[in-house]
Structure formats: C-alpha cells, structure tokens
C-alpha cells in the first residue's frame, strides 16, 4: 500500500516483489516510493508503446456493442503482434501500414477468389473483385455505339423514366438505346462490364 498524497491510496500487487523490498527516496519529488512503484514506472513503456501502435492504425469503430469493442481490440493487438513476429523473423524494412494492408489482402484473397467465380453475383462486382486480385486483362478494341438504322430514335434504357430522354444511338452489343451520358467506352454499362469480365476469365483460364 502506497499513499502518495492525502486521500489517495495506491494498491500494488506483484509476484516479483516482496514486503521486504526497500523504499527508495525520490529527491526531486521529496517523497519516498516503494521499489515496486519505481520498477513499474521504469518498465511500463512497453504497454504505452503498444497502445500508441494500436491507435496509429486502428480498426475500431464507434459501437455500443461490447462484443464488437472486444473484437476490434483483439484485431488491433493481433496486428501489432504479427508485425513484431514479422520483424523478428525477417530483415525486411516494410512499413507497418504496408504490412497491415498486405496482411489483410492475403487473409481475404481466398474468399475473394471464390466469389469472383460466383455466377449469381453482378458482373460489375465480379469485375471489381478481379481488379482487386490484379488478374491480368487482355486489351482489345471495344465495340462502338452507332446510330440506329434508318435514323430511328428511342428512349435511353439507362436513364430514369422521369427524364424520358430520346436518343438515336444504340449499343452495338445488345442494340439497346443509350444516350451519350451513359455511353461507357462506346457500349452501355452492362455490356462493358460483361465484355471486360469475359476477357478476365479467358486470361485466367
């Protein structure tokens, strides 16, 4: 038991120190402190360093659920421990933010590769997953949008019905009317995603 000031009691429990430990005088404070307190102040820097590293790159989010708070804390501590193990077993000079992003990507990679081949996912999502996985893509010329034959006009299939925007251009893949606002590489959005993703699957095979 240590009483640094009136009405403030510090209880210290240690399996390393005993009651016979001496009390050390601290000249600049003009008080005596138990050796257990001085030992703690001398060696507690590791805890502060871990707290600092966790706060620098934290996955924690505001929540009222204590289970999520615990989960976020475990992720932060796990990230710090993983980086310490990595640095201790390699001579790499990789920065911690780069290490954490690489670690997260490697943990997700197997799941992403499974989802990229799910036919029930929208093509745009599967294409985005292929970009994240850095699957090589074959470049080729995209089909162009062309005026409808005979100068016919129709409502843009990608515009909201409230706009009711007529256009004379059609997609060469599906012949859907598209206005210039929704032309993407001279094809409509759906065909663009479908064509590009088919190229990705062909290259992966």
Please give the number of β-strands: 8
Q: Number of helix segments?
A: 6
- C-alpha Rg, in Å? 32 Å
Shape: elongated
Structural class: alpha+beta
SSE string, helices as H and strands as E: EEEEHHHHHEEEEH
Low-pLDDT segments, ≥5 res: 137-143
Strand content: 5-15%
> How far apart, in Å, are the first and last alpha carbons?
71 Å
Mean pLDDT: 77
State the helicity in percent bands.
40-55%
Largest sheet: 2 strands, antiparallel
Strand order in space, largest sheet: 1-2
Describe the structure.
It is a single chain. The protein is an alpha+beta fold and 205 residues long. Among the domains are: 1-55, no CATH class; 154-202, no CATH class. Helices cover 44% and strands 11% of the residues. The strands form 4 sheets. A two-stranded antiparallel sheet has the order 1-2. A two-stranded antiparallel ribbon has the order 3-4. Helix 2 (45-56) packs across helix 3. The longest helix is centred in the middle third of the chain and has 24 residues, at 66-89. The protein is elongated. The N and C termini lie far apart (71 Å). Mean pLDDT is 77; it is low at 137-143. Residues 7-83 form the PiggyBac transposable element-derived protein domain. This is PiggyBac transposable element-derived protein domain-containing protein. InterPro entries: PGBD. It comes from Graphocephala atropunctata. Residues 138-157 are annotated as: Disordered.
